[in-house]
Each structure stands twice: as C-alpha cells, then as structure tokens.
Design goal:
single chain, alpha/beta, Rossmann fold, five-stranded parallel sheet, about 20% strand
C-alpha cells in the first residue's frame, strides 16, 4: 500500500490499449477510481449532473480555468473538458487513486498541479503491433492513421518527462506492473523497446506508404 493515495496518469500512443488498461484498473480494483470531469458539452440522454459530468456553460468553465479550479483541462472539438482539483482531493482523502487517461499536455498540467502524481507512459510492444491494432479496427482512414503517427512522434519524444515506462504486451502483466508502481513503488524492468528506434520506424511509415496523407504534405 502507498503511504498516500495519488493520481495515476496513463499516457500512450494510439493503438497501445491505454483506455482498456484504465478501465480494467478501475473495474477490477476498488482503490482505483475515475474522477467526475467537467465539460461544456450538453448532457446526453440519461446523464446526470455531478454523476456523469459536471456540466458547465463555456463562460462558467472559463471562469473556473482562470481561478485555477482545474488540475488539468483541454479543448476538444470546440468542447472543453477538465479534471477538478476537488475530485482529486476527495479521492485522496478516501485513500483512492484517481486514474487519468489523458494526453501529454494534460499530464504536464497534472505534474504541475499534483507533484506526487504517478506519471506512467505505456508503450506498445512494437510499432508494427501498434499499426496492426490501428488498422485492425477497420474504422481508421489512412489520413487518420497518418495523423496518429505524427502525434506519436511527439509523444515518444516526451518519454523522459515520465516517472515510469511500461509495455502493454500482455494486458494482465502490464496491469500488475502498474499496480506495483502505484501501490508498492516498484520500478518495472527497463523496456527492451528503444523509443528512438520506434520513432525511426514511424518516420519510415510517414515517408513511405503514408506520405500522401501527412498533414504537412502538399
């Protein structure tokens, strides 16, 4: 058990299984929870304010940003989403770890707001396996995959900012490593994957079969 509950921040490239890991942590282990985020999008049928989300007007959200109400926030497709500091504090008082499935920018905000948060970067077993997962969905257009690959280049560059790196090759083993980090402060074995090598492989794909779909292509 940790001396003090702290947020668990999971960041990964697309096709790594980060969201599955986050949901398994919360559903399988009682000390892990999701926070109730705030958003400016309207409630969907059946959603309840304060349970599914804290639903705010854009002005109210921006006012809270200015007052430092959020530990992290972002604008996505003209909607704003954020994690209230109060949610993290309430979970910590109950001895619960809030699991945050967010991006690099959100992770940086959490590190500034909650210095004892556990920042964990999740790698795929290889770029080729990552690509198989992306293309296997059957929902990604080539331009979407190219965009995800370009984003992955920046994400892999940020790995030194993270406390720990794990590889999601086997889901149960990866979950066990994450719990070891959070609950016992056990550092996992260094991954065999070379992040620079993964970046070179992504560049090969972007300069090869996905070159026509790159955002900076003419």
């Amino acid at each position: 058990m940790t001396k003090r509950a702290a947020p668990v921040v999971l960041v990964a490239t697309s096709g790594t299984g980060k969201t599955t890991l986050a949901h398994r942590l919360v559903h399988d282990h009682e000390r892990y929870v999701f926070s109730v985020s705030a958003t400016t999008r309207p409630p969907r049928s059946g959603e309840e304010d304060g349970v599914d989300y804290h639903f705010l007007t854009r002005q109210a959200f921006e006012d809270r940003v200015a007052r430092g109400w959020f530990a992290e926030w972002a604008s996505v497709h003209d909607r704003m989403y954020g994690t209230p500091r109060s949610e993290l504090a309430a979970a910590a008082s109950r001895g619960e770890h809030v699991v945050l499935d967010i991006d690099i920018q959100g992770a940086r905000q959490i590190r500034a707001a909650v210095p004892d948060a556990k920042l964990i970067f999740v790698l795929p077993p290889s770029v080729d396996i990552m690509m198989a997962r992306l293309t296997g969905r059957g929902t990604e257009e080539p331009a979407d995959i190219a965009r995800r690959l370009e984003t992955a280049l920046d994400e892999l560059q940020a790995i030194p900012e993270f406390d720990y790196v794990v590889v999601n090759d086997d889901l149960d083993e990866c979950l066990s490593e994450i719990r070891g980090i959070v609950e016992r402060e056990e550092a996992p074995a260094p991954p065999e994957q070379d992040a620079d090598g993964m970046r070179r492989r992504i560049v090969e794909l972007l300069e090869g079969e996905y070159s026509a779909y790159r955002q900076d292509s003419e």
